[in-house]
């Protein structure tokens, strides 16, 4: 779901005034805008609009970007351009915006004449344009760099991925099978406020739909999935054919329901499945494989966590649902795990992912097939979306590393030990003080800056700990 490159429009702004001063300036600066897009060609697909010099020009180009369903708009000042010509446009614009504060030449030299001054005077147009967006209360990102450098490409790459994630998030539908876990407070959110402020929509799906969906799964699809698992994982010989077939039917039925309802993220709660009375086991392995395919997931009816895992897929890739299980003070780390759901795409590369027969009393059902793996050691980042009431949201983020820690033979679910860069004590003090939730998304790599840009575009308070 995240294989495609972001699709970005380039809005080049200039003044008609300069056409009389410097004949050919429009063609020259249009070429500059195309050169910038070509420089960035490996990170996104760019649609370069013609230089805009009036309100009508700008609104026409922006309408084209929106109609083409692009992920974002990169604004490049080709010369100075008065912001009043784009003020209404940016007030109404729905696409994520990055203001590239760049100029054709990286340095001022004694050889410059008035034409060179004009070609390179975008900085005060950027100030005027940024002021218009600030007055409109619109979220946007800014990148000030020499456009010929790798640093520029890296920063625009980060913004373009964030724009893709935000655009996908705004149309996200989350299916909650059954209901959310009773009395669990930090997963609660005003669904209307979430939809208005950020875009994700929550819908509820009756467990009966899953039961009927399982009955409709073709036998050859079940066999195909089981055969694929045999070739991809170390499958426990203790798992019976009945257990595996039941798991496969649940996974295929869940995905079919999500597809039919336009949902790219979901949640199941063990009580909603167990209390229904028709199911034999919980769909834990299904959650792992669907996350690996790019679906967002949150346990126990947690739609916020499901939305965050989906955002993690779109922003970085390989979003992994997890929670903080216990603190390990000697290693300054936190044991990360959950009941059995975890994205096996983040598993250690030197150990096989196992599909095991596993006893689990939660849900009061039969043994659920479960994926067991340890998380790949190395840099990692945790992110938790906090509902502050109304349309205010906060993202609590912690960078650190997954340790190459000891195996825990009795732990029959995905796990790893995360050591925060700020230390266990400081991180947890900050996490709790900020209201960080107990369900979260983990991504491999140091990704705090990616989440900061995501927040700047979404209008979410960014809170690193």
TrEMBL record:
Keywords: Arabinose catabolism, Carbohydrate metabolism, Isomerase, Manganese, Metal-binding. One of its GO terms (molecular function) is metal ion binding. The keyword Metal-binding applies. Residues 320-461 form the L-arabinose isomerase C-terminal domain. It holds the Pfam family AraA_N. Residues 193-311 form the L-arabinose isomerase central domain. This is L-arabinose isomerase. It comes from Allonocardiopsis opalescens. The lineage of its organism: Bacteria, Bacillati, Actinomycetota, Actinomycetes, Streptosporangiales.
């Amino acid at each position: 779901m995240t294989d495609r490159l972001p699709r970005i429009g380039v809005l080049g702004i200039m003044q008609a005034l300069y056409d009389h001063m410097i004949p050919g300036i429009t063609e020259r600066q249009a070429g500059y805008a195309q050169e910038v897009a070509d420089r960035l060609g490996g990170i996104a697909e760019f649609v370069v609009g013609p230089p805009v010099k009036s309100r009508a020009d700008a609104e026409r180009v922006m309408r084209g970007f929106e109609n083409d369903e692009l992920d974002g708009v990169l604004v490049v000042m080709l010369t100075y351009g008065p912001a009043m010509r784009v003020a209404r446009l940016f007030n109404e614009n729905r696409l994520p915006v990055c203001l590239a504060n760049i100029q054709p030449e990286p340095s001022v030299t004694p050889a410059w004449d008035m034409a060179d001054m004009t070609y390179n005077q975008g900085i005060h147009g950027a100030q005027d344009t940024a002021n218009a967006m600030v007055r409109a209360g619109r979220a946007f990102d800014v990148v000030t760099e020499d456009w010929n450098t790798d640093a520029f490409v890296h920063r625009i790459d980060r913004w373009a991925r964030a724009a893709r994630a935000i655009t996908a998030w705004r149309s996200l539908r989350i299916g909650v099978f059954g209901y959310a876990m009773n009395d669990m407070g930090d997963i609660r959110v005003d669904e209307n406020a979430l939809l208005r402020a950020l875009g994700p929509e929550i819908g509820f799906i009756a467990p009966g739909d899953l039961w009927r969906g399982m009955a409709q799964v073709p036998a050859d699809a079940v066999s195909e999935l089981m055969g694929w698992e045999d070739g991809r994982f170390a499958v426990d010989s203790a798992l019976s054919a009945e257990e595996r077939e039941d798991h496969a039917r649940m996974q295929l039925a869940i995905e079919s329901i999500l597809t039919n309802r336009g949902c790219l993220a979901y949640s199941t709660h063990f009580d909603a499945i167990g209390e229904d009375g028709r199911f034999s086991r919980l769909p834990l392995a299904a959650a792992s494989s669907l996350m690996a395919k790019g679906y967002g997931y949150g346990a126990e009816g947690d739609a916020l966590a499901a939305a965050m895992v989906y955002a993690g897929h779109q922003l970085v890739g390989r979003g992994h649902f997890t929670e903080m299980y216990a603190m390990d003070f000697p290693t300054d780390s936190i044991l990360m795990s959950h009941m059995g759901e975890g994205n096996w795409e983040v598993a250690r590369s030197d150990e096989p992912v196992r599909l095991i027969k596993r006893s689990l009393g939660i849900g009061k059902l039969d043994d659920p097939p479960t994926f067991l793996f340890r998380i790949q050691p190395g840099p990692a980042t945790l992110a938790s979306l906090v509902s502050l009431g109304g349309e205010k949201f906060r993202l609590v983020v912690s960078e650190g590393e997954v340790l190459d820690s000891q195996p825990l033979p009795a732990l029959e679910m995905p796990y790893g030990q995360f050591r925060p860069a700020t230390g266990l004590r400081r991180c947890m003090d900050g996490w709790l003080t900020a209201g960080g939730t107990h369900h979260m998304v983990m991504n491999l790599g140091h990704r705090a800056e990616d989440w900061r840009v995501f927040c700047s575009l979404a209008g979410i308070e960014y809170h690193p700990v």
